[in-house]
Description:
The protein is an alpha/beta fold and about 375 residues long. The protein has two domains: about 5-120 and about 260-335, 3-Layer(aba) Sandwich (Rossmann fold), CATH 3.40.50; about 125-260 and about 340-380, Rossmann fold (3-Layer(aba) Sandwich), CATH 3.40.50. It has helices spanning about 20-40, 55-70, 80-95, 125-135, 150-165, 180-190, 205-220, 225, 235-240, 265-275, 285-305, 310-315, and strands spanning about 5-10, 45-50, 75-80, 100, 115, 140-145, 165-175, 195-200, 230, 250-255, 320, 325-330, 335, 340-345, 350-355. The protein has a seven-stranded mixed β-sheet, sandwiched between helices. Strands 2-1-3-4-5 form a five-stranded parallel β-sheet, sandwiched between helices. Strands 11-12-13 form a three-stranded antiparallel β-sheet, covered by helices on one side. Helix 9 (about 235-240) links the parallel strand 9 and strand 10. The radius of gyration is 20 Å and the shape is globular. The N and C termini lie far apart (about 50 Å). Residues about 370-385 have low confidence and may be disordered.
Amino acid sequence: MALVPLDIGLLFSTTGSYRALGGAMLAGAKLAVAEITADPDLPVEITCHVRNPNGLLSQYVGQAQELLRDSGLTHVVGCYTSASRKEVLPLFEKFDGLLWYPSHYEGFETSDNAIYTGAAPNQHIVPLTRYMLQNHGKRAWLVGSNYIWAWENHRIMREGLLLSGGAILGERYFPIGDTDIDALVEQILASRPDFIFNNLIGESSYAFFRRLRARAEAQGLNQAEDMPVISCSLSEPELREIGPDAAGGHLCSSVYFESLESATNKAFVEAWRHSYPELGPTSADAETTYNAVHLLARAAAAAGSAELSVVRRVVSEIVLNAPQGRIHVDPENRHCHLRPRIGRSTPKGEFELVYEAPAPVKPDPYLVWEGSDVALSPSETGRLRLV
Length: 387
């Protein structure tokens, strides 16, 4: 059987303020490449072209252009932040490449030049909003890094709370990497919200968790119980960055946690720990990147070609038995069908499941929500929402 040559770019920031996330994603991609290379049933010969943009938007643009134009690549797996994806996507459209975007994101986007293997908003923020309304209250503080991921997530959360009679007590944004958050923490503690929706990323987020926990304890508050921090992006490697004193008791909405019990996930975790003992636990970011590479390779093998239009058409026919469960790409919007889950973090750096959807959910990146079960309240069911 003839091998299908497949050159792929891997565009991840392994240095900079969110280096732990970028490093985990790159490792997930490399683990998938190693498995594909060793699999005699996958006649694909992969060559990787690795780039590190150092968390800087200007470098994402330059390095994406180098991969697409100068190296002539068609497929690039990469980007963590929505800001970096927004910056490079016009290049993929210009040079007719395919960006395999493996991160959860805020939605409100589709492109013929992208495959989205991370969670869409109806697979993470909508279930999280509903869970908080049902279990923790309606009064929230919103804090995030100053870019589209936080803006859009806050807009969705705000709308859900206000439609349910809730309130936003405060909303603040910080530059990526900013750790000057003492005044913010004091404002939040003075407001006593029912919960805090955190969309800070990288070092900003870790500093916030540590400072909030310390100041709450100094005031005699049980922060995890009295005002839990919720997120759609917190992962196991980040709990290690936060440290055991402040890592426990936070809620995260995700499609994957390392603690999931299945034979496929057990094999994935064992392979991860064998290959990357220095990285600690795996994460949703690593797993969805791993899935992206596997989907790409299987599509190329099934098509007998890495040509973009053929791969894009065939990939929706692939069902992958991923560590998180069976997933596939929706042919209409090129996002994946994924199962929403919510976990509570422990001081040991793990997540315990508190909610799991009964089945994978069809991606709805524009949150039209018509006639679906993802409405925030019964009064919204069947209500068409124009965006």
